[in-house]
Amino acid sequence: MTTPQLTVSQTPEQTASAVVDALVALLAERPAAHVGLTGGSMGVAVAQEVGRRWTAGEADFSGVDWWFSDERFLPAGDAERNALQVRRALGDAPVADDRLHVVGAVAPDAEPDRLGAEDAAQEYAVAMEEVPQADGLPVFDLLVLGVGP
Fold first, then answer.
1. In this structure, are residues 142 and 19 in contact, taking their beta carbons and an 8 Å threshold?
2. How far apart are CA 104 and CA 74, in angstroms?
3. Which of 80, 89, 110, 117 has its CA 20 to 30 A from that of 135?
4. Exposed (0-12), middle (13-18) or buried (19+): which is 142, by Cβ within 10 Å?
5. 47: closest CA among 76, 12, 78?
6. Is 128 helix (H, G, I), strand (E, B) or coil?
7. Which residues lie across from 33 on neighbouring strands?
8. H or E segment at 58?
9. What is the radius of gyration, based on Cα positions, of the chain?
């Protein structure tokens, strides 16, 4: 296990660049990584920087599995879903569908309900068993969390 690293930046763009720099360095050491990505402005900024570097040929992120550290339980096409915002922010980056692990959504013709959200969370917990574990918890190579503006 490595020592956590704290980076302080002045802007979201600088933070996103530092996150992606760390990911590029990690991928230089090994071909695969599991990244936990927040939603909202920070997750979008990181996705934009990944997309920019990947499509410019500056880096290859094909070995990265992207997991969401938060999501809103809404219909799949709802503009407020983090997964949709991140997918759009990635632009033309060739992220394979099986590498972008998306939390289940409300069926388009259904109203969200507590049981449905619990089912989606349980399905995601099972999927996250693919992430390396320590003491029964997933261990991410890089975890991006947001605290809002």
1. yes
2. 9
3. 117
4. middle
5. 12
6. helix
7. 64
8. none
9. 15
Strand (E) or helix (H) holding 92: none
Residue 119 CA to residue 110 CA, distance in Å, equals 14
The pair of three-digit structure tokens given for residue 4, joined into one six-digit string: 């956590």
User: Which one-letter DSSP state was computed for residue 134?
Assistant: E
CA–CA gap between residue 37 and residue 51 (Å, rounded): 14
* Amino acid symbol at 110: A
Task: Provide the residue type at 71 as one letter.
Answer: E
Which region, left, alpha or beta, applies to residue 91 given φ > 0 means left and ψ of -120 to 50 means alpha?
left
Q: Which of 148, 142, 139 is nearest to 36 (CA)?
A: 142
The rounded distance, in Å, linking the Cα atoms of 12 and 98 is: 28
Closest CA to 93 of 144, 58, 42, 145: 58
How far is 92 from 119, CA to CA, in rounded Å?
32
Q: What is the pLDDT of residues 14-59, one digit of tens each?
A: 999 999 999 999 999 999 999 999 988 899 999 999 999 999 999 9
